[in-house]
Protein: Aldolase
Organism: Nocardioides glacieisoli
Amino acid sequence: MTNDLDLRTTWAAGRPAHGLWSLLPGAVTAEVLARTGADYVVVDLQHGAASEADLPGITAAIRAVGSVPLVRTRSSSFPDVGRPLDLGAHGVIVPNIRGAEHAREVIASARYAPGGGRSIGRLAGDADQPLVILMVEMATALDELDDLLAVDGLDGIYVGPGDLSLSLGLSGEDHRDELRAVLSSIIARAIAAGVPVGVHAYTGEDARSYAAEGATIVTVAVDTVSLSQAMGQHLDAARTTS
């Protein structure tokens, strides 16, 4: 069974933790994903179909089978960071971080006083010191990366290559190699600073390539993508004539 302390210990030792990303709603979906042996499951409130009201059941299902429930918050605003933690999340992955000062504000919103400003009112779960992972997906955050990596209370950074490519003007296949170099640089700088780092991936092969460079927050797949691919493969197999 993995818990948030285990993840911190694993990452501090430079070892990877492998997780899955969920866009689909429901406790059953979450339990199915966690039963694969994933160290963590991320419930995506920003782009996924789950709502805050679903979180107590979803996070309980993930915990029950030995995985760590993390939530990508809807935004980086104070209430959007704290609310999932009150509803059972053991950590948050926060999008749209603008820079180092913004990072400090977000981390403070996830910590109780005196270290932060989070209000006491938890309804589910038991994470008094939740994991706080901040997303690097804006050019301004990349510009301040070294300062951001030095912010107290940061448990890790998580790179969103899609939004980062748009922010840097590097979207599309023509810029694939250039973007990959940027991602490699971010991984290297985070490792040098002693901060766990991950890059969002949709396949195990991509995840393995980031891990080979030292990424330790290793998201292996996204449920909607994997489901679509698997069902498509079964349909193709059934329709193929010998």
The chain has one domain: 4-239. The first helix runs from residue 4 to 12.
